[in-house]
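call fold(seq) -> tokens
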Amino acid sequence: MNLRPSQHLSENQVNKGLRLVIADGLTSEAMVVFTSGTFLTAMAVNMGATNFQLGLFAALPTFTTVFQLFSIWMVQHFKNRRIITALFNFLARIPILVIGLLPFLFTKGTSIQILLLMLFFQHVFGDIAGASWNSWMKDLIPEQRLGSFFSRRSRMGQILNVTLSLTTALCIDYIKAHYPQQEILTYNILFLIGGTLGLASVGFLLRTPEPQPQKMDDKLFKLFAKPLKNKNFKTLLIFNSFWAFALNLATPFFTVYMLKTIGISLSYIIALGILGQISGILSLKLWGKYSDWFSNKTILRICAPLYIGCILAFSVTNMPQSHLFTLALLMGIHIVSGLSTAGINLALSNIGIKLAPKNEAIVYISTKNMLVAFCSTIAPMIGGLMADYFANNQFTWNMVLKSSDDVNNLTLLNLQGWNYFFIIGGLLAMLSLRFLSRIQEQGEVKKEKVVVHMHKRFRYRLRANLGEDFTDGIYHPRRKVVKMIKKLRKQRAKTKQLA
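ret:
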């Protein structure tokens, strides 16, 4: 196997590489399902983790992004991103396998400390590999296919995530009900399976071709000054950081709010989360195409206001007296937020890759990742500190309806506790859009034109599905056939001219 970068890649090599990148994405996604999120938290709780230790588990992924600096130094000196990515991804899988073997290697009293240490090294090695991988993908994936490729990869990954999460959760519930003494062993087995799948992803990476990277001759700290001197990219950094701070001020508390304030059961919350994921999966293909046809900035200008509307809508979900109406409102919020989040995440990732210069992509993207991670970390911390203050304040706006027989109070607005966070977060997110408008992206199209295009495309698809053509309320079943005939005649005329 030749692991050296290639000066030139043929179209077949690029297409083969893209298929391997998708395979790597699917195996990595399966690994993430088995070794993080709800299953990791449940495992840590069963091992006796304190609240402070659980907080450390949540903070590790953002804390370790600073180690991407080491990745930049390695790419600069060794100029082989495939080996760097594969090597450090391999090293990141070893701690996962060690966690799976915890009951056989360590005593119960020391297991939680070893778990924390292993997760620390997993995230450190993973961040080093991730920075190198971003630079590699910048050169491998054709720019005109960036949106459609990543939307397809993300869509397939999310479908796998939902399927595996549901199946695994049902299996764990069954084991807890019938074999409770085997629950902790089940989590260890999940980590062993996840680590094995992670090693398989390394194999796919080693077979993926790498274009020759361009040289970076400047010193490390001089390189990091360049994204801040690039006016356009600096505007993107400000917008993305501001946006991350605004969202993480409010969104981490959605589950707490639904559990404690509205009083919804955990099973309903999981179902709402899955509904949002399905909405995102169904819309990713559309956003990927529009990202390539128009621009990532245009996608952001459509999706960001939709998501802000969802954040603000959360502040009024405790107002309806009917529990059924509250659930219907939450369902609508999760559908729209899933749809808009899919477009936002795809566009933010792609616009960073697109605006970064090829020879210094790893520096630009790593700078963006570290700033966003910092803002994402401090926002919920500030929100937590402010929680007690808002918990003791309430704002209510009522309308009194008097009649000869009775007096009725109609609640128009009721803000208390977390509701303030949602309004503050939504308003800050709205302010961040001012920086978005200043970003310059090649191929940018006005939002209004894209919305008109989406509306026309929807009407066209509706007509195609009905098998009829209609305008002004009048049906024209034959008009579609006439258009097709005219199109065929034009194509024949062009063929004759060429001949």
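The first strand starts at residue 394 and ends at 402.
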